[in-house]
Amino acid sequence: MPYMPVTESMFLIAETREQPMHAGGLQLFIPREGQSATELAEEIVETFHSCADIRPLFRKRPASPAALLGTLAWSYDDEIDVDYHVRRAVLPRPGRIRELLRYVSLNHSALLDRTRPMWELHIIEGLDDGRVAIYTKIHHSLVDGISALRLLENSLSPDPNDRTGTAWWDTALLRRRPPRETTGASLRSRLTAPLGQALNLTGQIVGAGPAAAKIAWAGITDDAFAPPFVPAPNTILDVPIGSARRFAAQQWPRQRLDAVGQALDITLNDVVVTMCAGALRAYLIDQDALPDDPLIAAMPVSTRTDKSSEGNAVTAIMANLATDQPDPERRLAAVIASTRKAKQVIRGLSPLQALAFGAATFAPLALAPIPGFVRSTPPQFNVLISNVPGPSRPMYWNGAALDGCYPVSIAMHGQALNITLTTTADQVNFGLIGARKELPSLQRILTHLDTALDDLEKVAGVRPLRSVP
Amino acid sequence: MPYMPVTESMFLIAETREQPMHAGGLQLFIPREGQSATELAEEIVETFHSCADIRPLFRKRPASPAALLGTLAWSYDDEIDVDYHVRRAVLPRPGRIRELLRYVSLNHSALLDRTRPMWELHIIEGLDDGRVAIYTKIHHSLVDGISALRLLENSLSPDPNDRTGTAWWDTALLRRRPPRETTGASLRSRLTAPLGQALNLTGQIVGAGPAAAKIAWAGITDDAFAPPFVPAPNTILDVPIGSARRFAAQQWPRQRLDAVGQALDITLNDVVVTMCAGALRAYLIDQDALPDDPLIAAMPVSTRTDKSSEGNAVTAIMANLATDQPDPERRLAAVIASTRKAKQVIRGLSPLQALAFGAATFAPLALAPIPGFVRSTPPQFNVLISNVPGPSRPMYWNGAALDGCYPVSIAMHGQALNITLTTTADQVNFGLIGARKELPSLQRILTHLDTALDDLEKVAGVRPLRSVP
């Protein structure tokens, strides 16, 4: 019986009914030419149900009895009740994205069964735009976000004429060459890129933006931002939460974010974090709950250097979101200064030290189920913002194009909101998961994200690609 | 802040992720003349969503913080997130009863949110027979099965032309005269009827059945059956369970069961329990798991004497199911003897004593979450069989006829199966809820129930109403 590392068991130990520790994803597929949504859904259901050769990751569950061994060791089921794990759903009319997000919100609130491998896959019909959605739920003790996306990507093909699509758990996929390797852009180099880019602190600033904007964050000093360990303020995000969730999701053209990044010589991640900073400021103002001190965001950083698609390998950097700053340009400068400093801290650590630093950052999670803990302890950070790279080119499953790939992450006691995003070939896909009762009108953050991107485009002096009124 | 009686808080205390303590119901409605299923579903959704005047029972929740006060006291929400509590669903094709039962199975496994009133209502379309289903989930700390059915019944009308249908939680319903009272058959007299009939131990035996059969259970002596406190055998029903459930349901014409009861001078409840005895014997033989000793069933008995539709008022009698007896006639005799004896015990108790006896019977529930408890303690009983009276005449909601009314009860550690049934005007509606992993092919019990009823018809010498091959 294989024993669990603490980076896996912590997600089982910290889990309560109010704080389920599964993450998920929502993928949208366009049926291939001449295929109806119903036909695609049935093709997926039949293919997935008929796959009996299931790789070990999808047969792995906490050992029995759950209370004694279940957080210490894994066991493997020989048979899987596929009818339980693979579910079919139809949205009620009118079948808008709203009904789809509602379906995910309600299902993401429910705990996974610990007496079987802890994953579910829902194939969802009834979207009025003719697409088919797949919502997946998998326990964080099994995979982290990067591993999960790698699983998805490995099951897809860059070739629209490929008809070898199979279930995501098919053992055959383990023998398939990962599509990303064939393009020469290795996952490893992509994952380490954001850290590598932190070296470019003094890099040349190019682009067409106003000079004042460029200078604002080029002239960074150590005094210009809060140190990584500054305490986060108490906010409505740092509260004990109920079990109900609300999921909100939206995608933006990658070109828009890239244009801002190029104009200002900052990374895509910098753009994303600054969008979140602006959106959270606006949302907290809506709620009449903006703290005087700036929000602190934790951003998980992968320390994974192999091609494995199992387990967890994550540390974190802390970013000052400068939500106290009303001016978008100054807010951007403060955010960038803070994340660059934080990346320098991480870069000075060995992989093991980085993991230990991450563990220390997330350690309070394990204490969160203790009554009173959240309320009496100042938060270390207010919100998790996670950027997980997805497939970098158009991908297909049996000819059906992947047209959206949204992460559905974890809200926790003291972390009522999680923002995770996935980059795909042409899109940046944001998935927001929040405590439904504690964060009213969560979906308004999507509008604020759009406004924050507008603001950044103005700072960068780039023209939005869409029509401007 | 009102404090909870232990008969309510015990269901909150005993609840774990593997052992959710909510019960529910599945009702089927036939759209009125000229109305489509979609139109009926939309009418229900709109009516339920537009009811803002919500009676206190549906605004009541465990006080916060849940861990400190939540199992001691109730609080009341002023506002309800109706969009969360009332849900709309569509079954995937082909929309058979099988897809409906699967929907209920999967949703009944999920815990209710404790930070809001603990109930949900799902309006389900997509049945190929044109009916609309309503699946409800309500925490057992709020209501027992009888109260829940009374809530339903109070929202329906015996008049097919009545168009005053409203939400089940509408305060207006509190002022509506309960329809049952208008017929003169009071709930109290119906509930106490089975106990009253126990007095007829020496009653005349009438009917057309074979004489031998009648004599078999007329000649009861105290030696012919196990005493009420005989230990139950260890079976596959008395095991720790996972959180996943399977729900199976079927209805039989009440006339068939009444014919058997009349022929043998036994109650409807006697017929039902003997059907369960035969079905469980056959199922355990299927599973190669029939114990040498007979199964013991606990049958909750209401001690409620008022018209309240809140709270819990339940005791229990123990029945020897004689599953060791291969002969249907001898099995029937042993079951009847045992239940009559048990009823005599209860009849000798005051209402308070009866409740205390019930509490002692169910006390181990509160200990079940403790690791190892179930496995090391001999079970007091193997299965719960509960008979809850439903509406005694045809009932309608805005002209849509109630055409099926199935209970969806609770499985627990050590009680992997629960059989609850509801009698309506013309039908006896069985609902079986079981632990999905621990009780394979649970739905086969339905076939065995039908066979057991056939056997009883032979013993009673009554002709089945359906065509016999």
TrEMBL record, chains A, B:
Keywords associated with the record: Acyltransferase, Glycerol metabolism, Lipid biosynthesis, Lipid metabolism, Transferase
GO BP annotations listed: biological process involved in interaction with host; glycerol metabolic process; response to hypoxia; response to nitric oxide; triglyceride biosynthetic process
EC number in record: 2.3.1.20
GO cellular component terms listed in the entry, alphabetical order: plasma membrane
UniProt pathway: Lipid metabolism; Glycerolipid metabolism; triacylglycerol biosynthesis
Pfam families xrefs: WS_DGAT_C (PF06974), WS_DGAT_cat (PF03007)
GO molecular function, one term: diacylglycerol O-acyltransferase activity
InterPro entries assigned to the protein according to its UniProt record, in alphabetical order: Acyl_transf_WS/DGAT, O-acyltransferase_WSD1-like, O-acyltransferase_WSD1_C, O-acyltransferase_WSD1_N
Residues covered by the O-acyltransferase WSD1-like N-terminal domain: 8-272
UniProt enzyme class: transferase
Reactions listed under catalytic activity: an acyl-CoA + a 1,2-diacyl-sn-glycerol = a triacyl-sn-glycerol + CoA
Domain O-acyltransferase WSD1 C-terminal stretches: 311-456
Family assignment from sequence similarity: Belongs to the long-chain O-acyltransferase family.
Name this polypeptide is given: Diacylglycerol O-acyltransferase
Organism field: Gordonia aquimaris
